[in-house]
Write a structure and sequence with these properties.
With about 240 residues, the protein is mainly alpha-helical. The protein folds into 2 domains: about 160 residues, Helix Hairpins (Orthogonal Bundle), CATH 1.10.287; about 60 residues, no CATH class. Helices cover about 75% and strands about 5% of the residues. It has 4 helices and 4 strands; from the N terminus they run αααββαββ. It has a 4-stranded mixed beta sheet with strand order 2-1-4-3. Bound molecules: zinc ion.
Length: about 240
């Protein structure tokens, strides 16, 4: 194989290892981010429940004021009963008292229902707060673990990058620049093998004449379709 190609493929091997290391780091980080999102969701749930309680409590206080007012009104009507003369007036007052008592009873029922609902919601908040506490502790532990893992991965990356610098020096600036550019725009693959006349980068057939040259000559060409640097190396089929 052409010496330049040998060095290029070695460089690409190192680059792929660095790519792999980068995705390892991303995966670690993504798992952590996911947990942070879950924790934020838990916090939002607690806030929603608290808002619900606040709304209910406000409703309860309004009802309590109304009940107190209505009870005063009922008492007032009751004392007025002593003064009325006619049966008609009495009937009217009695109805008013009856209605007032009924309304008070209804509202008291609502107040009890609200208190029960608030009790349920408070328990729910308590449960979520406990979970939040546990999850926060876990996330902190996990963050520490991931940090250590990423540090260790980064040490491996540094070693690979050092290797890369040394390997890159073995190539002429022009071909290195071309390769780097191809890698950037061609999915991390700059130099590719051609098997059976097919570019292993874009999987398009190359012209037979060019393929013949590639087989015979110790040279390399650019793929006419994807422009990647092509070489030919037979692959043992086991
Ligand atoms: Zn191609």
């Amino acid at each position: 194989m052409n010496e330049e190609i040998v060095q290029l493929t070695l460089l690409q091997k190192i680059d792929h290892e660095i790519d792999g290391i980068d995705s390892e780091i991303n995966e670690e980080q993504a798992a952590l981010d996911q947990k942070s999102v879950e924790l934020a969701d838990r916090e939002a749930t607690i806030e929603t429940l608290q808002t619900k309680i606040e709304t209910l409590e406000k409703e309860r206080r309004t009802l309590e004021v109304e009940v107190a007012d209505e009870m005063v009104h009922v008492k007032d009507r009751q004392s007025k009963m002593m003064q009325v003369q006619t049966g008609r007036e009495q009937t009217a007052l009695l109805k008013e008292i009856e209605d007032g008592k009924k309304s008070v009873k209804e509202k008291e029922g609502k107040i009890v229902a609200i208190m029960e609902e608030v009790e349920g919601l408070t328990a729910e908040i308590e449960e979520n707060k406990n979970l939040f506490k546990g999850e926060t502790e876990l996330l902190m532990e996990e963050t520490e673990k991931v940090k250590k893992a990423i540090d260790s991965i980064n040490r491996r990356k540094k070693a690979q990058e050092k290797k890369r610098v040394a390997q890159a020096k073995k190539l002429k600036p022009a071909i290195l620049k071309k390769y780097d550019n191809l890698r950037k725009h061609r999915n991390g693959l700059g130099v590719v093998n051609v098997l059976g006349g097919v570019c292993q980068g874009c999987f398009m057939a190359i012209p037979p004449q060019q393929y013949n040259l590639l087989l015979r000559a110790d040279k390399h060409f650019d793929c006419p379709t994807c422009q990647r640097i092509m070489y030919h190396q037979p692959v043992d089929e086991e």
